[in-house]
Amino acid sequence: MGPNLVRGFAPAGLGPRDITPGTSNDAIGGTNYWGASLEFQYPFYFLPKDTGFRGAVFVDAGSVWGYKGETQLASTGEVNGIVNAAQGSFVCQCGMQYADSPFVRSSVGASIIWDSPFGRCGSILPIR
């Protein structure tokens, strides 16, 4: 989830990330999410109503969490935990490590909305 849930965030900008050393913090998705938005739209009194322009201010909040995918592949030695080997047991963090929390992500901003003859257009200025 990203701008569809909280405006101002990149696609896949919310939610769990692969933080395994040597990776690029890719988004891995979650199974739970929520989002809320409050928007106040107002006309531009200094423009004729026929122009179709109006303004808006908004507050968005949301979260994505609950990664349920694979983190280990024992056949290749990618495991997290205790490994029993001929030389003895040791702890290995060799599988995927990920960050997953339900922290609230939010943004506030303003937008200009234009009801054009071809459909509605909008421009937003989010401030996170």
Any overview of this molecule?
- It contains no helices and eight strands.
- The protein is mainly β.
- The strands form three sheets. Strands 2-3-7-8 form a four-stranded antiparallel β-sheet, with no helix packed on it.
Shape: rod-shaped
User: In which range does the helix fraction lie?
Assistant: under 10%
Spans where pLDDT lies below 50 across 5 or more residues: none
The major pleated sheet works out as: 4 strands, antiparallel
Alpha carbon gyration radius: 22 Å
End-to-end gap:
16 Å
Instruction: Give the strand tally.
Output: 8
Q: What fraction of residues sit in β-strands?
A: over 45%
Discrete helix count: 0
Overall pLDDT score: 83
Going across the biggest sheet, name each strand in turn.
Answer: 2-3-7-8
Provide a compact summary of the structure.
This protein is mainly β and 128 residues long. It has strands spanning 17-18, 32-43, 53-65, 80-85, 88-93, 98-99, 105-116, 119-127.
What's the helix and strand layout?
Blueprint: E1 17-18, E2 32-43, E3 53-65, E4 80-85, E5 88-93, E6 98-99, E7 105-116, E8 119-127
Antiparallel strand pairs: 1-6, 2-3, 3-7, 4-5, 7-8
